[in-house]
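Usage example:
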Amino acid sequence: GENVEQHPSTLSVQEGDSAVIKCTYSDSASNYFPWYKQELGKRPQLIIDIRSNVGEKKDQRIAVTLNKTAKHFSLHITETQPEDSAVYFCAASKVNRDDKIIFGKGTRLHILP
Amino acid sequence: NAGVTQTPKFQVLKTGQSMTLQCAQDMNHNSMYWYRQDPGMGLRLIYYSASEGTTDKGEVPNGYNVSRLNKREFSLRLESAAPSQTSVYFCASTLSGVGTYNEQFFGPGTRLTVL
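Running the assembly step on the lines above writes:
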């Protein structure tokens, strides 16, 4: 089955700097890669996603890149702010009726003042 | 539109007790999921239901059973709770279906402690 590896497990960056989180997946049939943000004590929420027919997607300060050949994808957060402090999860899925979403183990991002 | 709701929010059980976690969604989603979240382990899939009337095992199904009662409701049962089942449990749902991309909507979670 699908396996998603996520690195690093913890990341500290100075406010205003950029943060990068990387994930790899094992199943070449996966074609949908969402990223979820989970604030302390809250539920995970989708922040951005990318489909396998696209190499990059941006939404304001966040962007995701996908390299299908290497089977890895990354989340980039620019101009980090205190409210970016959270746990971020990458995931991989196949688009069909019985698909599952397999999550990475998460990255705890700390934004330092 | 309440989205995904879960009950209870907190629960403390003794080893060997049983309980059912309830989940409901009002978004007319086809697929529903149960995850557990432990520190450093991310979200691990326990069971899922791709459509009403079907259920399938996920990564960590042992010690759990599920029921897809109807399209809206998906319950998780612990028959004989063990301390290893202490965790935060999240229910989620997606529209799913051919050609749809599966954003998952999560419930608020249930924090379960087994003594």
